[in-house]
């Protein structure tokens, strides 16, 4: 076995999810026995619970276009798309040297970190709400599908 | 989290697959060989993405199987250092925490990478002493963590009978809290 290229391109969670879905993986554990291996099923189950399951390519393209002005590195953009941080505390560890690169000047009313958070909340759809989180107070409103507890 | 790797491999195709269409047979053999296996420095193989070229088909003397040189791409799970991921807390002991991603379990938080003011409570649950109060790191809680290192330990030559199963890929991470404390 010879590795021709260790890194032939990165994939977002959405692309892996679409690939597995196209092969026939579903959330139903018994349904995907013929087409997809059990290990691929586990990956699919994990991805379906993250923010990737509601995303579309159009939303990702729009996010990439609109975050040009923040001058983020490719890895940082990928991490934001995969993780969908919904507040500043989650964005801060993703971006290196966040205080230096994204200005936060309350006197002049510029808060680039908050702009980035707002952009994420606006463009990327939220992850599916989990049933136990519905009981407690949420920071974001629950939308769309409810994932059943296994 | 995921990336593609371009691999070239000399694949012997066993004779019992010779009546199948070539592409399907090769894909099945590649899946049998690579799926759910860890390749050193490349990560955990999730899936075969596509097959680029198939060459050869020679039958070597004394061998019933035909050998093909296949160039293909694999989807590998290989988080980069500094990536933030979200997983579940599986186990907690004096050496630190043990996290899981559903399909990948060997994620460890060693004690020195826990938040500064943490102490071990009863039942082996770590507690973070924060200004706002004590926050226990309960099991089955969803946590965010940052990847600091990926280890690929070599296969041990000898193992104790009741040692933990050998893990070929270990991710060392540092801990973040689930809820934002502003």
Automatic annotation (TrEMBL), chain A:
<dbReference type="InterPro" id="IPR006590">
    <property type="entry name" value="RNA_pol_Rpb4/RPC9_core"/>
</dbReference>
<keyword id="KW-0539">Nucleus</keyword>
<keyword id="KW-0804">Transcription</keyword>
<dbReference type="InterPro" id="IPR038324">
    <property type="entry name" value="Rpb4/RPC9_sf"/>
</dbReference>
<dbReference type="GO" id="GO:0006384">
    <property type="term" value="P:transcription initiation at RNA polymerase III promoter"/>
</dbReference>
<keyword id="KW-0240">DNA-directed RNA polymerase</keyword>
<dbReference type="GO" id="GO:0000166">
    <property type="term" value="F:nucleotide binding"/>
</dbReference>
<protein>
    <recommendedName>
        <fullName>DNA-directed RNA polymerase III subunit RPC9</fullName>
    </recommendedName>
</protein>
<dbReference type="InterPro" id="IPR010997">
    <property type="entry name" value="HRDC-like_sf"/>
</dbReference>
<dbReference type="InterPro" id="IPR038846">
    <property type="entry name" value="RPC9"/>
</dbReference>
<feature type="domain" description="RNA polymerase Rpb4/RPC9 core">
    <location>
        <begin position="3"/>
        <end position="127"/>
    </location>
</feature>
<dbReference type="InterPro" id="IPR005574">
    <property type="entry name" value="Rpb4/RPC9"/>
</dbReference>
<dbReference type="Pfam" id="PF03874">
    <property type="entry name" value="RNA_pol_Rpb4"/>
</dbReference>
<comment type="similarity">
    <text>Belongs to the eukaryotic RPC9 RNA polymerase subunit family.</text>
</comment>
<dbReference type="GO" id="GO:0005666">
    <property type="term" value="C:RNA polymerase III complex"/>
</dbReference>
<feature type="region of interest" description="Disordered">
    <location>
        <begin position="125"/>
        <end position="150"/>
    </location>
</feature>
From TrEMBL, chain B:
<feature type="domain" description="RNA polymerase Rpb7-like N-terminal">
    <location>
        <begin position="8"/>
        <end position="64"/>
    </location>
</feature>
<comment type="similarity">
    <text>Belongs to the eukaryotic RPB7/RPC8 RNA polymerase subunit family.</text>
</comment>
<feature type="domain" description="RNA polymerase III subunit Rpc25">
    <location>
        <begin position="83"/>
        <end position="159"/>
    </location>
</feature>
<keyword id="KW-0804">Transcription</keyword>
<dbReference type="Pfam" id="PF08292">
    <property type="entry name" value="RNA_pol_Rbc25"/>
</dbReference>
<keyword id="KW-0539">Nucleus</keyword>
<dbReference type="Pfam" id="PF03876">
    <property type="entry name" value="SHS2_Rpb7-N"/>
</dbReference>
<comment type="function">
    <text>DNA-dependent RNA polymerase which catalyzes the transcription of DNA into RNA using the four ribonucleoside triphosphates as substrates.</text>
</comment>
<dbReference type="GO" id="GO:0006384">
    <property type="term" value="P:transcription initiation at RNA polymerase III promoter"/>
</dbReference>
<protein>
    <recommendedName>
        <fullName>DNA-directed RNA polymerase subunit</fullName>
    </recommendedName>
</protein>
<dbReference type="GO" id="GO:0005666">
    <property type="term" value="C:RNA polymerase III complex"/>
</dbReference>
<keyword id="KW-0240">DNA-directed RNA polymerase</keyword>
<dbReference type="InterPro" id="IPR012340">
    <property type="entry name" value="NA-bd_OB-fold"/>
</dbReference>
<dbReference type="InterPro" id="IPR036898">
    <property type="entry name" value="RNA_pol_Rpb7-like_N_sf"/>
</dbReference>
<dbReference type="InterPro" id="IPR045113">
    <property type="entry name" value="Rpb7-like"/>
</dbReference>
<dbReference type="InterPro" id="IPR013238">
    <property type="entry name" value="RNA_pol_III_Rbc25"/>
</dbReference>
<dbReference type="InterPro" id="IPR005576">
    <property type="entry name" value="Rpb7-like_N"/>
</dbReference>
